[in-house]
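Narrative summary of target 7.
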Amino acid sequence: MNIETSGENKVSIIHCIPLSSGVFKESLSYFTTQDIPVGAIIAIPVRGRSVRGLVVEVQDAKSIKTGIKNAPFALKRIESVETIAFFSPEFIESARVAAEYFATTTGQALSALIPKTVLENISKIVPHTSGKTVLAPTEKFAMQADTPERFAHYKSFIREEFAKGSSVFFCLPTVEDVRKVHESLEKGIESYIFTLHGSLSKKEMLATWNIILSETHPVVIIATGTFLSIPRRDIGVIVLERENSRSYKTLKRPFIDIRTFAEIFARISRKNLVFGDTLLRVETLWRYKKGEFLELIPLKFRSLIKGEQEIVSMKGKKPIRGQVSVISDSLAALIEETKQKHEHLFIFSARKGLSTSVVCQDCGQVVLSERCSHPVILYKDEKENFFFCPICKERRNAKELCKNCGGWRLIALGVGIERVEEEIRERFPDVPLIRLDRDTVKTHKKTLDIVKKFEDAPSGILLGTELALAYVSKIENAAVASMDSLFSIPDFRINEKILRILFTMRSIANKKLIIQTRNPDNPILDFALKGNFADFYKSEIEEREAFGYPPFTVIIKITIRGKKPAVETALAMVAEKFKEYKPYVFPAATTIKGVWAMNAVIKMSREKWVDSVLLGKLLSLPPAIGIEIDPETLS
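Modeled conformation, tokenized:
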């Protein structure tokens, strides 16, 4: 169609962003004779298929006639409009800013930040017509306190926001967290509190979404991160509860941290923001001390919990018929006590397949980095076996004697949950045992069923990985069977993760907690059992500053996977393209058989990101090359 001879109707040029993870264009242009505003969702033709697009700009065709004539392509016509001005301009702008931060396109960011069910059923969504738009000066608050104290304050400011005619959005990392927070807050506001998460059916999700948009009274929305897209105008506060959880990061491209997006969204839409947890991230505590966050209540850096706690050294355990026992005398006695007194026991074990720790068979000493004293990982390349420290990056030949006793029998140990289960069933065949990990459960409902079966039984053992920690409530006893391999994971945040796991174990056990370890002198264990967050933070922030980790830098990880020749070619291209940023290149710790994987890491000072030149280079990389900003691990 010739847009210059389109009759009496006004012709407009529509610029829109594809809401599709498979389309890598930032913006596409079409023409239409319909009156389509910015913010509308429309159907657009892309590569022979129809995808949804979000309108971000509308121009009169007459004003850009020359540009249209000289364009090297023909504009296609828009025929279908699904909804008018659905998402708020503030949400769209926040997605654009977040896309720059995470080195992706706005379209990909929006696709990750909007529930798929909502996008596919836009025509069934009612417009939000009630409530006032909240445009107050935005403030950021940090709240580090035990769970009962945090929720007492949450209930208080819900009442305050309702009195002001404002709604509150509680953002949670997992479906189970949504359920627990709803149970904690619903009393007294049952008619005005709603939950949204990905486990809802399409019918349930759309019905709840529409009720929230049509309710004239202020509401409390408890939801996972993608539901921040709900266009309810009167939301005055966003609460990021369980701020320390790693589940806030999306698991596939584009890799977006919901916490970062929520902070951007709160600033642009002028909403107050609260980060809350028993133990906030080190980055958040550093920013609080720098004055970037206010406190709702004085932050708590110590936590006292009643109950007996014991650290059991496994250093003296030697292999018997090629295997080391994973059950200490203390844990065996606790299992017997659990059986005799008809109590419950939760045993935590690190997941199968984690990086190993290296131990001397003669004296039990863990092999440590000579530079920073962290446990090393045993690697093998084409030339040699070598020890590698995931924290300080020290590398040395593995042909060495034990630094403690001079022994030469160094072995790699990696105790997974299957090994723990095997020994418990062998030694205590009459004790009921249920295992809970991602190999035994695939759905949220199945997990709930397993935990309920354990809690309803007169007694027994629940053996679980980190997955189980979100579901287990207070019981009599708890134990850590194995977590030494966690210290060897190439993750500069691993100390923080271990502290969080141990503190959660403290909170589960009413009577007794046992921690088995081959590294009993590690200060993290002492920090955790004493609830000493102040000294942990001091130690951790000093280490991060010394090695240039967040919050002092922003880490950009570029990952290349494939056949070895292709990876080597791509790696050479990346090294040349980013040479001015001095990337650190190393092999990925986790690989798939037959697939080579290499990482290139760039560190930038926090103040310099987003750097427009570097961002342009990152966005120009082929789609097959992965990009992560602030990755959880460097593996």
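The CA atoms of residues 585 and 600 lie 4 Å apart.
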